[in-house]
Amino acid sequence: MKSAKEIWETAKGSLQVQVNKANYETWIKDTVGISYQTGRFVVGTPKAFAKEYLEKRLRSLIEKTLISILGHETEVCFELCARPDPGVDSTAPRDYTSAPGQQRLPLHKLNPRYTFGAFVVGNSNRLAYAAALAVAEEPGAQYNPLFLYGDAGVGKSHLAHAIGNEACENGLCVAYASGEQFTSDFVKAIKERTSDQFRHKFVGVDLFIIEDIQFIIGKPQTQSSLFHILDDLQNANRQVVLTGNHPPQSLAPLQNEFRSRLECGLIARLRLPDFQTRLAILKAKAEKQKVQIDNAVCEFIAEQCQANIRNLEGLLNRVVAYSKIWRKPLSAALAREALQAITPEASEQNTSASAFTPASILTAVSNHFNISPEGMKGKSRDATSTLARQVAIYLIREKTSSAWQDIGQLLGGRDHSTVIRGYQRVSTFIPTDATIQNHISQILKSLELH
């Protein structure tokens, strides 16, 4: 009677012609036959993630294949096991070095502190968090590519790195680069006439993370190279995660084919955290620093900062430092004293941030374009009124947490699609249209003065 190992090798040969090459290489190639008893066959895999994928996606096909080989009903089970080569560390990423002179892709710049457990979930980031978690649990199976966007300091990098760290723990090969770094390496490859080797470095990568994609705007050769790399990875069911400060449709002038590639997956926005999320973030940061801090202090700091998470953490650090320096217990009164003494601009920051409400923005835009609030909400379609509404939509969406429907209601009951088109039009032209840039700059200055 054949051993479980021999039976499984036969099954793998059959499965290799039933699934595509990428799926075989990713999920089946490293598996082994562990044991076989009548009616039960155990398959081993070195990766926890692969075990889950095999159970959910390939169990039925594998059972049918084993039944055809064994000649009777068989249940298949999956277990974690060591890699076939005992000399290979099961926690290390695979080294794909098929091309002469090809260097292993470094796993640099993945911040080990950025994990899903350390991420505070709120209304401002719930969709992005759920999408990132789904991608980490099943890379390449859904939401590919995943595009995360939002202002600086809202958690894009945290989620991108969390996906990468999770993938590394599951033994996957991860490549990470910023848009600036990718461009620099690509330019260097062109100068050294090693463009083919540069592109070949990405063969076999399970997950590719590239941040600040807006950096490649205006660099057609870099865009073309990155497009082909993403195309190769996605065709092989390998996961791609990108971050940027605006959605793909607003990153002008991206090449159409490249923008289309980015839009074919899931686009998720992270907004500035609301009060409850800021409160939760402060408590999590304080707990990590092992600082005893009561709700009153957290609430005071959360009220002072309506900006991004980095600024919020900075205020917390200042309050804690002030407490230690002056050897005073943490309290709301001390927090107020600390922020006034160390950051006198804090009250100004809060005043400026509070100016950015949907109503105040609509008023500022109306005054700037010399159009009455009723005119903003009306049906006039002259060029000035149309531009004013589009600018108002863009600023309200960017500076507040208002939903599309709420913005539409504020502007006279306009529908969801009209509001989105208005936002996209302004965001598309901002990088290149000096007139729109000037309008927005003057409106923001007027808001900051009130």
Tags for this entry?
alpha/beta, Rossmann fold, 8 strands, five-stranded parallel β-sheet, Helicase, Ruva Protein, domain 3, GMP Synthetase, Chain A, domain 3, 450 residues, 4 domains
**Strand-and-helix sequence, N→C?**
HHEEHEHEHEHHEHEHEHHHHHHHHHHH
Q: Structural class per helix/strand content?
A: alpha/beta
CATH architect. name of the largest domain: 3-Layer(aba) Sandwich
Q: What's the Cα radius of gyration? A: 27 Å
Task: Describe, in plain words, how this protein is organized in 3D.
The protein is an alpha/beta fold and 450 residues long. The protein has four domains: 4-80, GMP Synthetase, Chain A, domain 3, CATH 3.30.300; 126-269, Rossmann fold; 275-348, Helicase, Ruva Protein, domain 3 (Orthogonal Bundle), CATH 1.10.8; 355-448, Chromosomal Replication Initiator Protein Dnaa, Chain: A. It is 54% helix and 9% strand. The chain has 20 helices and eight strands. It has helices at 4-16, 21-28, 48-70, 126-137, 156-169, 179-191, 195-200, 220-235, 256-263, 275-288, 295-304, 309-325, 332-342, 346-354, 358-369, 373-377, 383-399, 404-410, 416-429, 434-448; strands at residues 32-37, 40-45, 75-80, 146-149, 174-178, 207-211, 239-244, 266-269. The strands form two sheets. It has a five-stranded parallel sheet with strand order 5-6-7-4-8, with helices on both faces. Helix 8 links the parallel strand 6 (207-211) and strand 7. Mean pLDDT is 82; it is low at 85-107 and 342-354.
